[in-house]
Amino acid sequence: MLDSITAVLEKVDGMVWGWPLMILIIAGGVLLTIRTGVLQFRKLPLALKWMVKNEEGGEGEVTSFGALCTALSATIGTGNIVGVATAVCAGGPGALFWMLVAACFGMATKFSEGLLAVKYRVIDKEGHALGGPFYYIEKGMGPKWKWLAKIFAVFGVLVGLLGIGTITQVNGIASAVHNFFDPNDLHMVQLPGLGNYSITIVLASIIIAVCVALVLIGGIKRISNVSQVVVPFMAIIYVAFCLIMIVCNLNAVPAAIVEIVEGAFNPRAVTGGVVGTMFVAMQKGIARGIFSNEAGLGSAPIAAAAAQTNEPVRQGLVSMTGTFIDTIVICTMTGLSIVISGAWKVTGLEGVEVTTYAFQQGLPFSGKVVAFALMLCLVFFAFTTILGWDYYSERCLEYLVGGKKGIIKVYRWVYIIVVFFGPYMTVSAVWTIADIVNGLMAIPNMIALFALNGVVTKEVKDFFHRKKKAELRGESM
After folding, report:
1. What is the pLDDT of residues 326-342, one digit of tens each?
2. Predicted structure pTM score
3. Which of 73, 121, 273, 370 has the fewest beta carbons under 10 Å from its own?
């Protein structure tokens, strides 16, 4: 019976993350790219500058950089290590090319999401900010669309609690720690009602649950403060390892780039017919790219709405750097490392094993050092994703219950409890349901982006007109 349910769910999951959703998200990105005049490329230097230069005197709860790091805490996760490896192994090196194409259009989508989140957010007398797709659907499209806003919020709560923010992430942490410290299960402990588990898994579940509780109890400001330290740290460490590998194998880079480009349009020529057609490479790359950077899913604008800013366009620019960092920088580094090392061709390797093999083959360090470094990256990536998705799901719940703080506090503790029991909950059906709901979030969000693309265009024109006039007066914005 359980196998039948799992099979049905996996079929639904394949449909949700199939061509219709990808076409919807990419089409939205193309439309917004055209309407904003390829703003994601023209204004990228300005966006990177404003990413670390916070606006003074703006309304909101956290700095623009803090809001970005909160969003990145949820998007930079195991998908950057495991997801890229899965895409390249299933779709060949060409999948990386299509991942980057999706990210380029995704930057316009993420810009628009951040802009609309700030424009239509609600800030109470205490400075508490609430915004995201639910508010730009309700206030931007009109009250008659509130039902669509509520559907998005319900999906958001389910994604956070069911697995993307809890079970899958803490499972990833526990597995990484277990595989490094006790791969042969030499140190087991009996847990009443749960069974025998390695002591490393038990300790990991306790430590992560306590750390998550200490951060979440402090609310958005503490999540933001932790994210501002952990996210840049883990991203820099990971990118540094990738750069060292690329530099040490510089002579293999040109051939790898040729493999990636050729594999994007003629995978059979590169893989020997192993992965099928160009459309397979395209689907795997686009799907994993969207899943990694979440452009179009509607999660990141929830964090953007909390930024201390009075300018929606400015926060939109800061928000779009998230996709640039997540996919164009980090995912590219991972994918290039895998192609250079040839790890994607090694049979019997899956997920993180592919990336681990690539680093062990290409880095001038011992295999143990590489495995330890990758384990730390996975732990930090997954930990910050837990924090980010709690914030997203709490804000969705807050919209649904009208801001009742008692319900939010109960939900927060339930979230922490699920994190604790995550390593012992390995039902694949739960993961699949979370994956399905995660994809379904995009539908109401993309409907809103299509409906409000005129608002985005108007805001962009007005902002840069005012900015130009300010510069003529010798002022800055």
Report:
1. 888 888 888 999 999 88
2. 0.88
3. 273
